[in-house]
Design a protein that fits this description.
The chain is an alpha/beta fold. The chain has 29 helices and 22 strands. The strands form four sheets. It has an eight-stranded mixed beta barrel, surrounded by four helices. A hairpin with a 5-residue loop joins strand 15 and strand 16. Helix 2 runs antiparallel to helix 3 and helix 6 runs parallel beside helix 9. It is elongated.
Length: about 800
């Protein structure tokens, strides 16, 4: 029983010198150490000054009794303090420099600057323990030596000084073991003094002094442990709260999932930094194994070269994995990307959101949030399958059928055959020859028809689905040079009508039969889009229902919209095109985050016009109506490309081209021929497709866009938001960038709806993995707003007016002047 308190005391003292394992999460350890360094930088000067002052006072009082002892005390203490301060001055100076900036009011620099210390926390803590241990030995010697002197006043002074040393020790409580390193030698010296003088005349005084020093020392040690525990909890709570706030901030930045389990961080080279514990647990790796690995390698992402246009695979939009790699390579923000991750031989799914971090125009890396959504994804897949399939027939429903038909039309657009679409309507149901409207029997009939149609579509290689309550749809997809002409379409439709009308014999002997009508639409895949084909089939089906015999009908041709009438000035415009009376000027497009000029947009000007200034809309309308629009567009393209050849290789040129131009044959080949002729890399050309006259989702347009995209030409959707089908364009075609129209940018502070459109367009671009350029930036407030919203590029009079090619400059703009004014 007597040994237990002794062993317990020894264990406590040992734990005081040897700090135990830290309960701080691994990914928060750097931030936790950083916070402790800041506290040390604040408190240590006061502690060092207290040591310096105590040595000076004690040495001055001891000088009259023993010059050598006084000199030795002052020299030892002040040399230890001085040498330690000099060796750690780089650490202390980093704090003073930041504090001086704060007092001078340089808030802009202080807020954006993270304090960097020349020493790590472990090095400072180890060094401080050594210093306090050395100081404790000196003060312990001082206490023992003084009590060998005959003066009682110096005895009292020594006790006061040594006891007073304990108070500033609490300034070192951040470092475990530093308080004990100085306290225990002094207490041990007091024990030695008591042992030497306990039997003398001063026994009572010596005992009192011993008890006072011991109690004060133990109180300081206990108080330091309690204070360190409370401080650690406070720092951890602040760090965890900051982490939660950052997760919430990124989730509420427009994320639809509102899901975030951890924060991930990379440096400018794409290497993972400070992974969270959950991040490591899910990957079944330690933090040491993950730190320093490329995020692209860790998640097995495809390696994509920066500057490449939006990648498409076999004509289909990129997967989330490719989207992720594309955004990382091009420093684009992204949101809610579902990424497969291999963990322990299994595939789990992460939902990743992130954005690039810039400091003073310099790329610092990525910060983002992630969450394990494996269960949610599996449930979402099951849900998606349900909403695209008809529960009764097992066929694709109307939505899925139209999606499949659109995809098949685009894939076969390079071939000349006609597309045929057949709609079938089950008009009446008979049971044993008597018409009935029994819904149960109707479901039985539709289930059997669904099975027959599904089997037929597999045999004939077609797209089938349930289009309406009583309507079914089928479109054959012919291979090679075969085509579905009228006779072939008629034969197939009659075969399907017979298949649908074939009676069904139930188990009880009941016979179910149906009456079916068919509408057939023949239309060129290269001439019309999906909506026109669906409309034609519906019209044909309506006509077929009105027939008594041969209940099928054809609709072979759709009417075309009349062309616009000729406008004023047509003759002068035609003459100006022939005489090349137009000139080109170039306006810079600037990176909103770094201030670097990325490229220039080529704009046409009419030299010597006698009609005064004309709006670009009116001028383009006149050029198109003159029939010389194609000639004009290719002249602008060639002239701009010749000018761009003389620019630095990192700059691109953007050229506007009418959307209707891409419906013409071989337009992509003509563009690539011009690039080859002038010697411009296709990756340095951006074609801004205006939706002013409408961009039709035709297969010919799709093929032209796809060829240009494969060669590296970037496609930009110009004047985004001013048309009616911009969102469908982004879904169908490989645009790498969208340009916000001037009317929205200029009204963001006057019209809340314009501001909302701008914000949500940028968020939409984040989801699609494409860039956003805002036109019409004419004020500093516009620039700041767009930069804060995460806009990639800006263009406007604030950043540079259009000028001839010979007057261009491409130096980076003074970004700091924009952000700090």
């Amino acid at each position: 029983m007597r040994k237990f308190p002794v062993l317990r005391a020894v264990r406590i003292l040992a734990q005081s010198f040897l700090p135990g394992p830290s309960p701080v999460p691994t990914h928060l350890q750097p931030a936790f150490d950083y916070s402790r360094l800041r506290i040390l930088a604040l408190f240590l000067p006061f502690f060092l000054f207290a040591q310096f002052l105590s040595a000076a006072v004690a040495g001055g009082c001891l000088w009259s009794l023993d010059h050598k002892a006084a000199f030795m005390l002052v020299a030892c203490v002040e040399s230890l303090v001085g040498l330690w301060t000099i060796s750690k001055w780089s650490f202390l100076n980093s704090f003073y420099r930041l504090a001086a900036k704060s007092r001078l009011g340089e808030k802009g620099d202080v807020c954006g600057e993270k304090m960097e210390f020349a020493w790590t926390y472990a090095q400072i803590a180890r060094s401080l323990r050594v210093l306090n241990g050395a100081l404790g030995a000196v003060w312990g010697w001082f206490l023992v030596y003084v009590f060998h002197l005959p003066s009682e006043r110096i005895h009292i002074l020594a006790v006061i000084v040594c006891t007073g040393l304990f108070a500033p020790l609490l300034l070192c409580l951040v470092v475990s073991g530093s308080v004990e390193a100085l306290t225990l030698p002094v207490v041990a010296a007091a024990c030695l003094v008591m042992a030497q003088h306990f039997c003398g005349a001063l026994a009572f005084i010596i005992l009192s002094i011993f008890l006072e020093i011991t109690v004060c020392g133990l109180f300081v040690v206990g108080g330091s442990h309690l204070g360190r525990y409370l401080l650690q909890r406070l720092l951890l709570d602040r760090l965890e709260q900051r982490e939660r706030n950052e997760i919430i901030s990124m989730m509420t930045r427009g994320s639809d999932s509102h899901t975030g389990d951890w924060i991930w961080v990379t440096d400018a080279d794409g290497c993972v930094r400070t992974p969270s514990d959950k991040f490591c647990t899910i990957l079944n790796r330690s933090s040491a194994e993950i730190v320093g690995l490329q995020l692209v390698d860790l998640l097995a992402l495809p390696v994509i070269q920066p500057g490449r246009p939006l990648p498409w695979i076999d004509g289909q939009p990129m997967s989330d994995t490719v989207h992720f790699g594309h955004c990382l390579a091009n420093r684009l923000a992204f949101r809610d990307l579902c990424i497969p991750v291999s963990s322990g031989g299994e595939t789990i799914w992460w939902l990743m959101t992130g954005h690039p971090v810039f400091s003073q125009g310099v790329f610092q890396g990525y910060r983002g949030i992630g969450a394990d959504i494996t269960r949610q994804r599996n449930a979402r897949i099951r849900y998606a399958a349900r909403i695209r399939h008809d529960a009764v027939t097992g066929l694709p429903n109307r939505l899925a059928f139209c999606e499949q038909l659109q995809a098949r039309m685009l894939e076969k657009s390079a071939q000349p055959p006609l597309c045929s679409l057949m709609f079938f309507s089950v008009d009446s149901l008979s049971r044993n020859g008597v018409k009935t409207q029994d819904s149960v029997l109707q479901d039985v009939l539709f289930t059997e028809i669904g099975k027959r149609l599904l089997q037929f579509s597999k045999e004939k290689s077609g797209v089938a689905g349930r289009y309406g309550i009583t309507e079914f749809a089928f479109s054959p997809i012919m291979q090679g040079a075969a085509f579905t002409g009228p006779e072939e379409a008629k034969r197939m439709a009659l075969e399907l009508i017979a298949l649908f009308e074939q009676p069904i014999i139930l188990t009880d002997g009941m016979i179910l039969a149906a009456s079916v009508a068919a509408g057939i639409a023949l239309i060129s895949c290269q001439g019309q889009g999906l909506e026109a084909l669906l409309e034609a089939a519906e019209v044909a089906l309506h006509a077929a229902k009105g027939k008594t015999g041969n209940r099928y009908s054809f609709y072979e041709r759709l009417t075309q919209d009349d062309e616009e009438h000729q406008q004023a000035l047509l003759q002068d415009v035609s003459q100006a095109i022939q005489e090349k009376s137009f000139s080109l000027v170039y306006q810079p497009v600037v990176d909103a985050q770094t201030g670097e000029i990325n490229g220039f947009e080529a704009l046409s000007r009419w030299r010597g016009s006698r009609h005064g200034p004309l709006s670009i809309e009116r001028l383009i309308g006149l050029i198109e109506f003159s029939g010389q629009g194609s000639e004009f567009d290719f002249w602008v393209l060639e002239t701009a490309c010749r000018a761009a050849v003389e620019w630095p290789s990192h700059l691109w040129v953007a050229v506007n081209m009418m959307a209707t131009r891409f419906s013409q044959p071989d337009v992509a080949e003509q563009i690539l021929t011009i690039l080859s002729h002038v010697g411009l890399d296709p990756r340095r050309l951006q074609i801004e497709v205006t939706e002013m006259l409408g961009l039709r989702p035709e297969p010919a347009v799709y093929q032209a866009f796809r060829l240009l995209d494969q060669q590296g030409v970037r496609l930009v959707l110009d004047d985004f938001g001013t048309g009616f089908s911009a969102l469908s364009y982004l879904r169908l075609f490989p645009f790498s960038k969208i340009k916000l129209d001037t009317i929205f940018v200029q009204d963001i502070f006057q019209d809340s709806r314009s501001a909302a459109i701008v914000r949500n367009t940028i968020e939409l671009a984040v989801d699609l993995g494409i860039a956003v350029t805002a036109e019409g930036v004419s004020s500093l407030e516009h620039y700041r707003f767009l930069q804060a919203q995460g806009c990639n590029e800006v263009q406007g009079y604030l950043l540079g007016r259009p000028c001839p090619a010979e007057d261009l400059v491409w130096d980076s703009l003074p970004l700091c002047s924009f952000t700090q004014v």
